[in-house]
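Self-study notes.
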Amino acid sequence: MLEPDVAPTAEVGAAITVEGVDKRFAVRGWRPGRPKEVIHALRGVDLEVPAGTVHGVIGPNGSGKSTLLRVLATLVLADTGRATVAGHDVVDDPMAVRRSIGLSTGEERGVYWRLTARQNLEFAAALHRLPDAAERVPTALAEAGLADVADRPVSGFSQGMARRLGLARAMLHRPPVLLLDEPTRSLDPVAREDFHAAALGVRDRLGVTVLITTHDLAEAASICDEVSILHAGRVVGRTATDDADELDAELRRIVA
């Protein structure tokens, strides 16, 4: 098995911990002169994700899923609380956190559409200063199922192919933690399954921890070991994902 380039701290049992994280956003009203509205996105969130697992954060739109992932990725600063990723505090050591994560979203803005798939990964490798890019790039393309289209411009890719390229880019530096923010949004069933296969393949080969946000119960049931249910900015439940129907019933019971 390949080893992640950035290993989690040995003393830390969980790959991700979140303790009492709270976040508010002030949003200006849509009419001139209207006072700002405060959106309470996260309300004292607690979460622990064991290393090597696939953990889902599931909830309706507006429940705070993306905000939570952005806090963990050091893109948003929480108002209160504490969070660690791979043993590193997101506030005290944000650069170590960024080295320890791969981030992929349903709005893949890090893909350069005029470049080929190979050029995209070569550029990412240069940013990470990877000395063995000549080996990693073709390997990553093959693992993402893109070897046959490696030298085609990404502008001609389907959404599913672009998402798998984003996944390959996120894992190019072999971080121990992978953050996926609704990565299969708007994908058809076949493209969704292809992405899931690629993500689970990465988990199996590298032993990484995966945290995925979704509002798709079938997706959560198919790839997650456990899910935490987020509702109105609060974690209101945690359950295994043996069956999508049971997960649906549990979600309805909790948020009713």
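Second protein, same conventions, sequence then structure:
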Amino acid sequence: MTSEWKLRDVLAPLKAMRIAVTGVLMGTANLIPGVSGGTMVLAMGLYEEFIEAVADVTALRLRPARVAFLAILLAAAGLAVVFLASLILYLLFIAPSFMFALFIGLTLGGVPTLLRMIGQVSLSCGVAMFAGLAVMATIAFTTQAADMPRNMAMDFVSGIIGTMAMVLPGISGSYILLVLNQYDRVIGAVDDLRRMDWSALWIVIPVGVGVVAGMAGIANVLRYLLRRYEKVTLGFLMGLLLGSVLGLWPFGRAPTEKILEKRSPEQLRVYAESIGLPVAAGLEGRARIDHILVAWSLTEKSPVIVARKHPEAMLRLFAEREGLIVPADLQGAALAEHVVRSWPPLQAGNPSTREMVAALFALVLGFAATVMLGRLAPKG
């Protein structure tokens, strides 16, 4: 473990700036499905200090340096979430490939820092690294959308899950929330609260309580592991970090419901035309959004996912508008499978040369930014 910081270390201008920038990256990452805020902390070389601070504060061991560290980090993260939510939703709509490539670069930029922390890679460290990579591969390639309730109890659970994005590098809490069909509810409530819609507190407060409870448990476990089995634990975290990019392929990504809800009618019309969905371009309001969402779901070619995401009435209405013939006796997954087979995929899957060049630039930019910021005010 690294030596414990003193209060003067935390408040030194360069180190305070490094902590604040890490907080902004952490908060921004938590807004994006598939991206982990914990990865940003790890990439910036502050992960061990973060775990120690969270474990101490949640156990009411209020050491000034650790309280100040968390205050700067979480304040910056909170401000990023509140004030960047609308901007991130907009950028994910107009430039999804650029944004996801940027976060791939930001994530991979932490590899040099973590390698320096590990030092010589032992066999046990290598095995742990492979195990972490396998965990992320499983999440990226085998997880399917679930049909979960939307209530206060689930909001509390969502807060605990969201903690994964802040504490565990590579495990994206926002992605897991998306899988559990809770992402747009939580991120939408945060944006509504920013616009002073106080009814959103009925969602935000249970989520916040869950975040605190989950953070206390996970941080104390990680601190124990880092103290007793540092290199093996760091190897596992490296595997999580490397594997986190597996679910961030930047091209052909579907927008979420909340992203579409925040767009103007003209933006939605232009978007529907750009992805080869003229029927949706001719619709209005909620009907247009639903049609776009169903179309994107169909491109996944999984009847199970389609049936879980959309009610039968919505699928039948989609088929009717697209001129598809659907037997009246089909239900559930059978209905979804019939629509999947009958409807041609969207045209949005093949990126243009310009889009690929922009994504490559974003990846390099993100990598370089993390490497440089990670070297800001070296630890001592």
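Instructor comment on the second fold: The chain has 21 helices and no strands.
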